[in-house]
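As noted in the main text, all predictions were made from sequence alone. Below is one such record, for 3-deoxy-D-manno-octulosonic acid transferase.
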Amino acid sequence: MGLATPLLRRKLRRRAETEPGYALAVPERFGVYDIAPRGPSEAGRPLIWIHAVSLGETRAAAILLKELRELLPQMQLLLSNGTATGREEGRKLLRGGDIQVWQPWDSRQAVGRFLRNFRPDIGVLMETEIWPNLVAGCKARGIPLVLANARMNEKSWRGAKRFAWLARPAYRSLRAVWAQTESDARRLTDIGAPVRAVLGNLKFDSVPDARLLARGRGWRAASARPVVLFASSREGEEAAWLHAWLAAREALAQRGQQVQWLLVPRHPQRFDEVMALCADAGLTVSRRSTWADEPPTADVWLGDSMGEMAQYYGMAHAAMLGGSFEPLGGQNLIEALSCDCPVIMGPHTFNFAEAAELAAEAGVALRAADMHEGVTEAVRLVNEPARLADLASRCHAFTSAHRGAARSTAWAVVEQMRSTPQPGAAGG
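Prediction:
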């Protein structure tokens, strides 16, 4: 990891060309801070470190953090992120006295400087983020490090087994792991993780922004056509969607099945690329960033803003799940369902396998074999008002039935921290 440091610096410079956030505070990546080192923890003011690598993990962290602040009103947050979108989202979570930095590069030197500078009372890694030097550094300093909302799909499990000499010591050195599902728990236990409980998925406890949701529903009501959202689409999926849509639209139109498309790419650096793809195919495109009061008439609306997913789900009668029509594992479908928006998902949902299966069994997520079937089913669904209303009502019941993980996880974090002798007093 030390020898690879120059490669990381070069990668950051290249990423910053399209995402300027990667040029921000680069020394923090290597454990160099302009923040004074922290002394021993003040009584009643613990420093809780949460690491959320990217956007999805940061949103899950926000749900957990809300509960933690209720249990520990005087807590101080140390938030680390790995991506520019995660850091931007994480900035919204900060209160007075909180700290936000980049995740330290997983070299012994950078990790050592990070831990000596901040001396957290507990570290909470979100979902999948296991770094061997980071885990080893916490163990050596007596800092309890836990994995919350933990998940491990089959692919990651096989990879961990292949590199068991590296993975097992890292997972075994965690203080506690709280898994999302029984399947996750079995795979994590198999590679040595100390799984203490299966607490469910934090994302079921998310509450959509009521203001954004209401605005989206207002725009949906004003649309002349039913709206299908392609949510968090990934590279290659938009081209496949375009091919499927152009091949099917004439036949669908002859059956009276109209649709307004709303595309929201997963990564902001691809907004211009997706815009050009649609325009080159002869479609008119209107970008969210140019709207005044409401969306203008266009073949495609392009969601090129950050932090407005609740609004986009509010606009949609149904959503196609990005990342599931290519072998990428699928994005988070729970967010859509919490907005009462039924989902059409492709064949690849291994990142959220159990949530996808439960949603399919409940009838709130429909499985499509490929992109052509997904497009056809989505358009058909939004043109059947009675069926659509039934699915929307099921979405609300489904998400309500799976809530509760946030409070359980917050209590587990607090109990783990309190059971650790002399919190925050670990040396360098």
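The longest strand covers residues 227-233. Residues 237-254 form the longest helix (18 residues). These features were considered when defining construct boundaries for the mutagenesis experiments described in Section 2.9.
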